[in-house]
Amino acid sequence: MKSLYITSVEKYSGKTALCLAFGKIYQERGLKVGYLKPFSLRPWKIGDKIADEDAAFVIDILGVNAKPWELAPVVVTSDMLRDYLTSKEKVDYMPQVLEAAKILEDRKDFLLLEGGGNLREGYVMNLATPDVAKELGSAIIVVVKYTDDVSLLDDVLAAKFRLPNALSGVVINRVPRHALSYVNNLVVPYLEKEGVPILGVLPDDVSLAALSVGEIVDVLNAEVLTSCYDEEALVEALMVGAMTEDSALRRFRKQHNKAVITGGDRTDIQLAAMETSTTCLILTGNLHPSNLIIKQAENMCVPILLVPGNTMETVESLDRIIGKTRLGQKEKLDKFMKYVKDNIDLKRLDKALGD
After folding, report:
1. Do the bridges between strand 39-40 and strand 167-175 make them parallel or antiparallel, or are there none, so unpaired?
2. What is the value of pTM for the model shown?
3. How many angstroms separate the CA atoms of 194 and 276, rounded?
């Protein structure tokens, strides 16, 4: 069974999105695709089982016939780490990973492995990316997110340094439109000369990293106060309304498709938000808005979400997931799939996999 290990140099680079896209592409070719995250630092409890938080999402998109906890054989919790550090005998988790892969090998044609949030993860448990990939005979590609001109080069070269004999290719992701020419015409040729195979350059698209209103409701455990509620509507930015009405209106006009977070008693901010392109209002502190606000929101079809936490807690909860490309909506998945097919050299990837 052929396998591909996809990792990154920092979190929220697009690993899961690329795994899903490649998985769908290989499924279109008629292959039975499996998925495994050998090492996870993002535990998610399901009953008495511990799984990776993205497991159910992957099962849904790829139609994988497995339980969420079967997709991540080693999920590190705080209790597990303490036990590991204080154990008198050295614990070897590699056999668990190999056994999980072996089970998939018996019923799949192709295995996608998703690495951790960066290339440093896994060493404490002896499950570093190079070691796992070597044991499984997997090709490794690294997703590098564009942050700025210099960091992009440093991140790619750092990946080459950490994977000196194992790097099969790099995908440069989320490149702003203004930087595409620089990346394609200068960065890619330079890195190829340095011996780094660049499989493709994907443009940035804020709509792909947007959160749906439904996701926000789930994350914040929010109460929806309006009958007008589209859970698939997308939020591309968060804005906190803690200023004067005039200042708020000027700022709100600069950002489209936003969620405005403010107190339930700030009627002026709520009205200002609804005069601009606002996907939803998030009112904090369990403070109900006035009937005027609810009526206006219904007329303009702007859902109002009421949350128990204060503004700081609400922003922190959303900051943990905003910017992470989530492809739960068909339109987002289709758009990302098109970017991958148009911009990644799939024949070169096939060659790296031994085809």
Report:
1. unpaired
2. 0.81
3. 48
Percent of the chain with pLDDT over 70: 96
CATH fold of 2-204+326-352 reads: Rossmann fold (3.40.50)
Give the span between the Cα atoms of 201 and 38, in whole angstroms.
27
- Domain 209-319: CATH superfamily is HprK N-terminal domain-like (3.40.1390.20)
Q: Identify the pLDDT of residue 318.
A: 84
| Average pLDDT over every residue of 169-197 | 97
